[in-house]
Amino acid sequence: MGVRVRFAPSPTGFFHIGGARTALFNWLYARHVGGKFILRIEDTDRERHVEEATDVILSGMRWLGMEWDEGPEVGGNYGPYFQSQRNKIYEEYLEILRKGDKIYERDGAIYFRVSGEPQLIDDLIRGPVHRMEEKDFVIFRSNGTPVFHFVNVVDDAAMEISHVIRGEDHLSNSSKHVELFKAFGMPVPKFAHIPLILKTNGSGKMSKRDIGALVEDYRGKQFLPEALRNYLCLLGWSPKDDREIMPIEEVIRLFDLRDINKNNARFDDKKLAHMNAAYVKSMPLEQFLERGRNLLPDSKLAGEYGDQVLAICQEKLRSFEELNHFVSYFFNEDFEYDREVWSDLRKRDPVLRIGEFLAKIENMEGFSEEKLEEIVVKLAETYGVKTGDYIHGVRFALSGRTVGPSFYRMMLVMGRERVLKRLKRALVEIEKWK
RNA sequence: GUCCCGUUCGUCUAGCCUGGUCCAGGACACAGGAUUUUCAUUCCUGCAACAUGGGUUCGAAUCCCAUACGGGACGCCA
């Protein structure tokens, strides 16, 4: 029997980061052992917007690069993969319980009769866990719909799921599930209860109301999916050799359930941001340009000039979310000057420096990085100040800020005419501030 | 309250199974510093942890027990 694992989200309209991590560990395990990864939508008892809500999950899964072998839109031999379409199967399984005298009715609901014996939960991460169910529990509501414990087990049994990999919040439920598997006369799968993801601040597990809890938010904020995925891999698992940023193929090669941690992990958005930055910087230029072009302030501006701007910004950029702001002044002659930064700059005599630099540019021949650097170095020598004084002042004049891409390359991309124009404009503007 | 799971730097973790090489390693964050090209980049340095108490042992982060703390489950939610 091959390995068959599944991710079984409920279409709530959100794709929670904890769910994504559960999906990821299932996916990694399936890919590691060459098994099947199944996606099943647990949409019982939900009338509203199931389609859109399902789509949030499907597109989130695809965005993170977790393709499924069976499930919505791809089919498979164990369908349907929506619980709302599996009522006939549930009736059949209910019949098995009825024949075995395992159920009874009360207040219109159907209850499962527990055995009163401790059940073994064979957990690959935690070792054997014993737990006893003390109370009979409802498997069909009085309105005729089946409840989670029932459909979850029926589907896992019917779909021949070999390993149930899910959050630790289900560990206590597992004794119910083991009883059901046995009552159906079906083999009990292996379990692997993975640790929970806790809030960055405060106590408790992350919930959809927490900031940064939704996959679609990261997508909206232009995170690189590879970076988020890489970060998620490291929440509860590690390659054990100090590597952190690693290609997914390598993670797949090394991943194993036995190496998953037992304790919960706190979500750290700073580390995620760091990882995203590392991925942004290491992107092949062509890929970086392709992605960056769509995020420029005005798509009409994309072109050779746009590409040049993007190319010099890659090494400084930490996320695509800030790209627009980072490059805006390249495309706008009326950019704002950051007056706050200006006050810090004043001790460097920026007006003097800008004026001296302007005079040199007006008379220079050729316009290259080397020539520009030569000018700055000579000026600094002549007036006995630091090169940084020129760089800071002139950068401010050209962009209104003191941070940005490599100074000389920035001017090269802007071109001599634009540089001259901006230096003059800056001097006029600054005059007004006095 | 009952039951289940867990506890190494602020955070993510390595080491624990197979006790000595660990006065505990890496990363993020933070703090300093460097690159005579500024910086939100890169590099270097520093800070910082085996929850507590017992036991086993020549020796315990590593094995056992208890306590404390954290998390989860106890729904006709999933």
Characterize this entry briefly.
This protein is mainly alpha-helical and 434 residues long. The chain has 18 helices and eleven strands.
Account of the protein in words:
Among the domains are: about 285-320, no CATH class; about 340-434, Arc Repressor Mutant, subunit A. About 45% of the residues lie in helices and about 10% in strands. It has 18 helices and 11 strands. It starts with a strand and ends with a helix. It has about 425 residues and is mainly α. It has helices spanning about 15-35, 50-65, 85-100, 150-160, 175-185, 215-220, 225-235, 250-255, 270-280, 285-295, 305-315, 325, 340-345, 350-365, 370-385, 385-400, 405-415, 415-434; strands at about 5, 35-40, 105, 110, 120-125, 125-130, 135-140, 165, 190-195, 195-200, 265. The structure holds one RNA strand of 78 nucleotides.
Structural shape: elongated
Output the helix-strand order. Answer: EHEHHEEEEEHEHEEHHHEHHHHHHHHHH
User: Approximately how much beta-strand content do the residues carry?
Assistant: 5-15%
Report strand order across the widest sheet.
3-4-7
CATH classification, class level of the domain at 339-433: Mainly Alpha
Largest sheet: 3 strands, antiparallel
Helix residue percentage: 40-55%
Q: Report the CATH architecture of the domain at 339-433.
A: Orthogonal Bundle
Put simply, the count of helices is 18
Provide the low-confidence segments as ranges: none
List keywords for this structure.
RNA-binding; two-stranded parallel sheet; mainly alpha; Arc Repressor Mutant, subunit A; 434 residues; 46% helix; elongated; three-stranded antiparallel beta sheet
